[in-house]
Amino acid sequence: MKKTVLIALFFIGINVSQAQELKWYTNVKEAITVSNKEKKPMLLFFTGSDWCGWCIRLQNEVLKTPEFSKWAKESVVLVELDYPRRTAQSDEIKQQNNELQQVFGIQGFPTIYFANAKVNKEGKVNFEGLGSTGYVAGGPSAWIATADAFVKKPVVSAEPKAKTESKAKAKSKKA
Questions:
Q1: pTM of the predicted model, to two decimals?
Q2: How far is CA 165 from each of CA 153, 154, 157, 169, 173, rounded to the nearest angstrom?
Q3: pLDDT tens-digit readout, 58-115
Q4: For an engineered disulfide with 52, which of 19, 48, 81, 122 has Cβ 3.0 to 4.6 Å away?
Q5: What is the DSSP letter of 52?
Q6: Chain centroid, CA 85 distance in Å
Q7: By three-state DSSP, how is residue 41 classified?
Q8: CA distance 128 to 15
Q9: Which bin fits 123, alpha (ψ -120 to 50), beta or left (φ > 0)?
Q10: DSSP per-residue string spanning 105-171
């Protein structure tokens, strides 16, 4: 009995540590550098971490799961833009987060915005918005399916669709 309990705790511990291994950037300039280097879009999580019920629910149901962790490591660079009421923040982070809230037109929490960014020679950041979402019911699978629509670009075939379809029909007739 003791061995079973210890084994179960071991596996729970592994799952929790995997979900916590994610790197959430709070400095957007640092995240942009990593995003461009890794050629991954940024996931900008606008949250009220210590007061927003839907933000906390999104964290618990999706963002802290092993499934999300695996997806995020492969797909995005994570950025948390927090607007807490009880947690202290530096003036630089407050200013950065307020500017980004205006840039992206964020009116409610939680909002997750997917974007690419480039820094020009003058140091100005240009964002390319890919889409946004918030809380999605159905757990990590449903949320990831929604996010993939913004993150994963469709593969464009070099051949026109009509030729591809006729080749598929020809193959099926041969079989």
A1: 0.77
A2: 21, 18, 12, 6, 12
A3: 999 999 999 999 999 999 999 999 999 999 999 999 999 999 999 999 999 999 999 9
A4: 48
A5: -
A6: 24
A7: coil
A8: 34
A9: left
A10: T--SSSEEEEEEEEE-TTS-EEEEEEEEE---SSHHHHHHHHHHHHHSPPPPPSS-HHHHHHHHHHH
Place of tokens 């974007």: 115
DSSP secondary structure code for residue 48 in this structure: -
- Digit-coded pLDDT (tens) for 117-153: 988 888 889 999 999 999 999 999 999 999 999 998 6
**Please, where are the H alpha helices in 21-89?**
28-38, 53-58, 66-75
Residue 119: predicted pLDDT: 86
What whole-number distance in Å separates Cα of residue 54 and Cα of residue 111?
10
CB 143 within 8 A of CB 136: yes
